[in-house]
Amino acid sequence: METCPVCGVAFEAPADKGLLTRCPACKCDYLSSGAGAAPLRRPGSLSDRPGDRVTLPATFTERFRLGKLLGSGESSIVFLADDLSSDRRVAVKFLARASGPDQMARFLDERRRVGQVEHPNVAATIDVLELDGCPCLVTEYVEGGSLRQRLSVRKRLGAREAVRVATEVLAGLAACHAVGLVHGALRPENVLFVTHGTVKISDFGIAWNPDAANEESAGESTIGAAWPYVAPECYTEGEAAPGSDVYSAGVILCEMLTGSRPYDATTP
Ligand SMILES: Nc1ncnc2c1ncn2[C@@H]1O[C@H](COP(=O)(O)OP(=O)(O)O)[C@@H](O)[C@H]1O
Ligand SMILES: [Mg+2]
Fold this sequence. Notes:
By secondary structure, the protein is an alpha+beta fold. The chain has helices at residues 58-61, 101-115, 147-154, 159-177, 215-221, 232-237, 242-258, and strands at 2-3, 10-11, 21-22, 29-30, 37-39, 53-55, 64-73, 76-83, 88-95, 125-131, 134-140, 191-193, 199-201. The longest helix has 19 residues, at 159-177. The relative contact order is 0.11. The protein binds adenosine-5'-diphosphate (ADP) and magnesium ion (MG). The site of adenosine-5'-diphosphate has 19 residues, from strand 7, strand 8, strand 9 and strand 11.
């Protein structure tokens, strides 16, 4: 038998524990306890090629109990998990397999630098791991949902609330800029809320695109879905600077206040 980690309903165990299980009662997607692998793609786009799964070593499964699917991005999947070493809930994010050791090394190095930033408006990094050729980020679990989710319910926020959110985003950015780190992909999906309202920026550091193996294509192709928030100079110069994060924060503030972005187009 299988027990849903969210609603507690018991039902017949799935045949394959390396794929997501959907609870027949509450319909949440989760990874069964005892799974030795995790999918790297969101449900729906799930195929069963070996490369679409990350094998979880015992050192990982002994420490983390993966549970509910929190969401998925362009090349990532995020689970809620219990960190048994500290007895707290964390978010575990698996990114698509690296294109090579250099790309992995650069990514791990950058993320470990992000992990050294301690600021109330930056989601804390707990661990940065390499599992089965995939980067894995363990971060503070921010339970109140994203700004994107808020904007999809309310379309815009009150002026006072919008300014407070923008002020906290800028404080988090400033802390990272002070140590030379640029976000590069700031957008409402990466602005998360703690239940009582504090804002936490997530996904600081280089955007992850395993297909962008060479430096020439990296600037354009790593921008991906963040492009409406990306400053024009990132397209012309090919890289983000602190000022481009401030531009992204400005676009987000505009969207929070008016319900739409300053430019409306379907491509950069
Ligand atoms: N630390 C976290 N705490 C809570 N939810 C998170 C956390 N990180 C990510 N999520 C959720 O998972 C979703 C997918 O995350 P991510 O892979 O970063 O993609 P994106 O930021 O492109 O949406 C996010 O939009 C958010 O809803
Ligand atoms: Mg994100």
